[in-house]
Amino acid sequence: MNGWDRVRPSRSRLGGSRATSMSSFGSERHSSSQTIHLGRVQPQAPGHRTIYCNDREANLPVKFKGNSISTTKYNIFTFLPKGLFEQFRRVANLYFLMISILSATPISPVHPITNVVPLSLVLFVSLVKEAFEDWKRLLNDRVINSSPIDVLQEQKWESIPWKKLQVGDIVRVKQDGFFPADLLFLASTNPDGICYTETANLDGETNLKIRKALERTWDYLIPDKASEFKGEIQCEQPNNSLYTFTGNLIVKKQTLPLSPNQILLRGCSLRNTEYIVGAVIFTGHETKVMMNAMNVPSKRSTLERKLDKLILALFGGLFFMCLIGAIGSGVFINRKYYYLGLSESVEDQFNPSNRFVVAILTMFTLITLYSTIIPISLYVSIEMIKFIQSTQFINKDLHMYHTETNTPALARTSNLNEELGQVEYIFSDKTGTLTRNLMEFFKCSIGGEVYGTGITEIERGAAQRSGRKFEEVQKSANAVHEKGFNFDDARLMRGAWRNECNPDTCKEFFRCLAICHTVLPEGDESPEKITYQAASPDEAALVTAAKNFGFFFYRRTPTTIKVRESHVEKMGKIQDVSYEILSVLEFNSTRKRQSVICRHPDGRLVLYCKGADSVIFERLADDNSQVKILTREHLEQFGSSGLRTLCLAYRDLSNDLYERWNEKFIQAKSSLRDREKKLDEVAELIEKELILIGCTAIEDKLQDGVPACIETLSRAGIKIWVLTGDKMETAINIAYACSLINNDMKQFVISSETDAIREMESRGDPVETARFIRETVKQELRKCLEEAQQHLHTVSKQKLALIIDGKCLMYALDPALRGNLLNLSLNCSAVVCCRVSPLQKAQVTSLVKKGAKKITLSIGDGANDVSMIQAAHVGIGISGLEGMQAVMASDFAIAQFRFLTDLLLVHGRWSYLRICKVVTYFFYKNLTFTLTQFWFTFQTGFSGQRFYDDWFQSLYNVIFTALPVIIVGLFDKDVSASLSKKYPELYKEGIRNTFFKWRVVGVWAFFSLYQSLIFYYFVTISSRGGQNSSGKTFGLWDISTMAFTCVVVTVNLRLLMACNSITRWHHISVAGSILAWFVFIFLYSGVMTPYDRQENIFFVIYVLMSTFYFYLTLLLVPVVALLGDFLYQGLQRWLWPYDYQIIQEMHRDDPDDSSRTELLEIGNQLTPDEERSYAISQLPKEKSKHTGFAFDSPGYESFFASQQGVFAPQKAWDVARRASMRSQPRTEKTY
Amino acid sequence: MFCFFFLSSLFSYFESQTRGRKSQRRTSHLLNFRTKFILGIRFHISALLSSSPSPFPVLGGSFFPFLFLLLNCSMNSNNASSSAGGGSADSSPPRRNSKRPKYSRFTQQELPACKPILTPKWVISAFLLVSIIFIPIGVASLLASRDVVEIVDRYETECIPADSRGDKVKFIQGTASKTCKRTLTVPKHMKQPIYVYYQLDNFYQNHRRYVKSRSDEQLHDPKSANDTSSCKPEDTSSESPIVPCGLIAWSLFNDTYSFSRNNQQLTVNKKGISWKSDREGKFGSDVYPKNFQNGTLRGGASLNESIPLSEQEDLIVWMRTAALPTFRKLYGKIEVDLQVNDVIQVTLENNYNTYSFGGKKKLVLSTTSWLGGKNDFLGIAYLTVGGLCFFLAIAFTVTYLVKPRRLGDPSYLSWNRTPAGH
């Protein structure tokens, strides 16, 4: 197929799309500013609040909110109105409510029961669910609100419940306790006024955070002292930013600046500290965690949206049928039918003198009569099916259980099960998703010399591709391999570095590793047992490396770092050295570097710096050019091997210089406005004239089974895009390693790292540069597009790949160029975007989602993927070792990338098939039922007389045909799980939406038309004349009962015919449903029902069953009705078989899915292997959280956004979080 | 609806039980307050951050799955605690029990199933089977229907004197004698009992206004005589209720037939022409007609006020309203055989007004078979379907021989058929 066709937005598979490609691009032009909204901060209330600590009276006038919280949606009084309101916001429910009201009026042909029973059943079910959930929330709130906390009252600690807490109170929180509100940290039992907090509940990061109280408040620890504390806090108004806080503490007329470092947030817990004392700043719903409560916009699956169109079509059909009936009734009504009693005083509906009114009223009559055409139980059934699918099948799939991390798959929403079966584009993060995020110190370059002998998997893979063979280097016997360290070079280990040509550089290198970091040591202070808590695994790997080189960092105090140094003075000598830490210049994504200023024991003042090569090289002193050139070479070499690099540098400082700088630094630190920006500016002043030591190379290992998974997925017709913050070389290499790109592909590279651009940048005019890059990107895109076009027309089968970096992407995403970018990228089978920011990840995802109208899936593990995960149709988070942010934002969480195969090809595909089947079947059964009614209308003078008894009609959907379709929705399998994975191409049926096209619906509609005609006419015609040998005749209710019996039997059997696999549950449910009908009719017609049961069907079934007519018709009608479908199915299978049918035939003799038999025997026990790896996973270990921004996420978005005059946050986490708050429906609409 | 939720909740239970493995039940965690509290906090906070920590809150829909889940949880006790954490359990103190899902055929979707494949063989044999069963039934039904001897006499025009035919309605509403004589010839031997039907046409007994114009309460319970609210406009006559009320009863058919052969009266037995359940269940034996046909406009027949409704079989038959505008109702039985070429004299009172709406009236004499009266439809339908199936079976066989398709031929797979574009 010609690839260029795809660029056009696919005519949405159900119903032609209205937008042409041009107009859809046009509409994006308008929406471009919308995308920028991602970065918008919540407006903050003006002013500040003043809190008087330990003084309830003084705080009284301000009326701060209490500390009790409520997360419930309803209370006793609002439950019914609000709950019902929520329910009736669903159109289907509202429709049935209106029908029910209509049916209580005299124009209704049916008793209100007909509509009220199903509606109230559905409502009841939904309300009970709501109540149940809210009850759980209420209990939760109660537990939390009434948990005790120690508050200072009259110089004693009094225990009061959380809800009684007020702003300004002084509280004591004990070890492992939770902070009841946002507190100002005053004092701690730890020396130096520090405490450790765990923030796992807030951001999922499992490492401990240090908080440090102001020195002035350290003493207020015991009640006697604390009661003396009378401070005044001036701080910002409550807001939702977790990582910022500005305020001042005024104690004894002294103003002390407060930073986030002194704030303990509600929801965190205290660790490794006996107790702390704090003052309450924000309470209850004003705490930061509560302000962060956000409603994740719930996603609806594409199929469900198409279902809405089907429902609309049904409405259209309903209207059409009613119109015909109404016109008929107007024409029919006539006084000549004297037996109808149409005298002058007859009511309007039958008054022949006003035929128009008759028609209008009959219209309403018929709407009530035909209301069954809209399947009321459809939504409930689908929800139920999906719920069971996600909780029972996806969550419990043993194939998606990862033993090492003890993580099963988790479906966090059940709305999107079938969406998994239609995914066409996967956007994947690299770090932690494709790769293990297991950072191992692998190589390094010190002073222009490369150390480390290992060969990366990527190099090995590249070698295999090019046919070369690597000689496996024998690991030396003393090679150390522990977590975070996989380095082998005898020249450096065990003090051997002393014999290298530049031992001093080596020493600085190791010291830099051991000192310049923010790692926390935990556990026993011995090299074997210590574990490092680090913000990124890279850092932990570097510190571990230092340890192995003989510079063992073992203790950190707020002012010192203690390192046990071996072999420094001479071989074999071990000494503990304490370095005084003077200042820490922290890492962030704009700085891309981190510095520590420390004083050696000998008084030497040194700044150690590590960071990205680009920023370090800019700040080097010019003298060591030889090392510079060599190191750059090594950096590129490492990069191409897929290693992650960092440059290390140092600078000797004079006391004088430092003192002068420190003043500015302290000033910046205590500034209330733009503190971060000022800090960055100050840091610039000292981080210059650095001396390059060398660089480190860390290996980022691929996850298990990634290449195989990617290959399977691409065979399934899914296109995989890698969006990464990494450098282009690394990204390309990873793409090679996971067989996303290979040498047979034509690669288009659009990079900003060209000489022309560099030259332009060096001139320093940002506006000019921007214009230049934009032009370049434009030309490049056009060129690539032409080339790609040529390729597709002339050279056959060569696949295309596009590699683009973040800077170029920024310009390519410009509305004017977007179309080209989309055109080009959709024709490529692999796309790699490197150096992209979280915001751009989301933009690229939306580009494909909105621009190409394809179903997209994003998968990632870190905070920087959150926006992308939420932008895509389906978001998947990698759970397990890493933090929770991605998981929290995702729709599904899996432990490993390779589980995507199971999730998409097995669960997704099955869900899609099942839901399609359920939906089309619902459509069919209700249409068939209603059409029989419709045909009857023609023979009743269009009076709207009902054909069926009220109870038949009301129970048809909820009892007689309800269960089997749910069983099918749960159990239907076309081919087994192993075959689904063996033939990934089957997945394409879902991408093409083969099973829910208008054509498919049309076929069902045709057969339901056919069947309804059979039901009605066969049953009525064959009932003419006397019956049985007694010659008695039937009445209306005999015939309608007969017809209903045929409908129930046929509709249930039809379902069986649609099944690909039939379990005993199918038999039970189908037989059960038919049986339920008979049981019902036996009982129902066996009794005389009192009240308003005119012309009831008393004894009808017994009368019927006493005749041969009943049995002959019951055999004839279903067979004839099903004959058409049977013939169609037989022909279709024979002449135009679906792929899955061929696969079924190929494997028809295979034994029942045997792939899982091994699991069957194990039952719930772990295998020995699993047990071992599980045991290992349970050992105490470094729990780390890679937040993504550590080393791989440049903040290009800031420039892009600032051009538009919008503030863009610097931190990836902020971007992600704010992106996730984008719940306003208007953004949805404007697209 | 309820039963299937219950059923579904039993799936995993049943499936695991049938595997004969006892699920290890751990005693439920005795959570002390602290643990509860921590779980509570975790739930609470993750709820805030994501609004959906566990699948519950986002799952719209029904409550029943919860029952289902609860049942399951009682078996997988280790899941109970983790569901609250929603995946945040990483940081909790290490637990010995793993989160490995339990194996069950239900959750792993490996329930034993038969996988029917509609191969040509199956299609052909299904068609053959249908034709083998249907053709004999068709033949039998058709024979039964053909055995029935039926005499139909349409009389609505003939029974109006030639000079009145210009305005039939006026005639039928007039007071002139409406007696009419018809002569029928028996074409074939008719075995007793011979059923006498009247057949009306264009008579909408199934019209909504007509169908509901009756009071079943009143019909079988003398105490409910006043229960006439649904009977309008034929509910009361000068303030007192009409029994039986309503349009249906009011329009009771009132043509009468009497038969004679060779001047010898043929008795028409009018007992047992209605369904027994109607007589005994719906129409009370102590309910007597009252005020019936008292009004200004007379609709149809009047009733003998001394006979209880349960014995007014004409009324009972009439009130079992017909499904279609053309219908036949039983009038009575002639319980003697009629010979070939017997000439039957019918004396009928042509009282009923079908002329207003142009309806036909027919008198039908018919014998019955085991299947009933003359109705070829079932027989023909069976034969047609059987024949069609046979034809289809042949056609499929021929196609199969002419253009065979090997089962499971990989070359039919779409990705093998078209050159693999990207």
Summarize this structure as a short list of keywords or feature phrases.
heterodimer; A: 1231 residues; alpha+beta; Calcium-transporting ATPase, cytoplasmic transduction domain A; Rossmann fold; Calcium-transporting ATPase, cytoplasmic domain N; 9-stranded mixed β-sheet; 9-stranded antiparallel β-sheet; 36 strands; disordered C terminus; B: 422 residues; 5-stranded antiparallel β-sheet; 4-stranded antiparallel β-sheet; 36% helix
Could you tell me the number of beta strands of chain A? Answer: 36
CATH superfamily of the domain at 396-432 and 706-905 in chain A, by name, is HAD superfamily/HAD-like
Number of helices, where a helix is a run of at least 4 consecutive DSSP H or I residues of chain A: 43
Uncertain segments of chain A of ≥5 residues (pLDDT<50)?
1-44, 1154-1166, 1176-1231
Give the tally of β-strands of chain B. 12
- CATH fold label of the domain at 396-432 and 706-905 in chain A: Rossmann fold
Helix fraction of chain B? Answer: 25-40%
Pick out the low-confidence regions of chain B: 1-96
Distance between the termini of chain A: 29 Å
Rounded average pLDDT of chain A: 80
Radius of gyration based on Cα positions of chain B: 36 Å
Tertiary shape of chain B: extended
Widest beta sheet: strand line-up of chain B = 2-12-4-10-9
Major β-sheet profile of chain A: 9 strands, mixed
Approximately what portion of the residues of chain B adopt beta-strand conformation? 5-15%
Can you write the helix and strand succession of chain B as a string? HHHHHEHEHEEHHEEHEEEHHEEEHH
Helical coverage of chain A, percent range = 40-55%
| Tally of contiguous helical segments of chain B | 14
Family (chain B): Belongs to the CDC50/LEM3 family.
Subcellular location (chain B): Membrane
InterPro entries (chain B): CDC50/LEM3_fam (IPR005045)
Main location (chain B): membrane
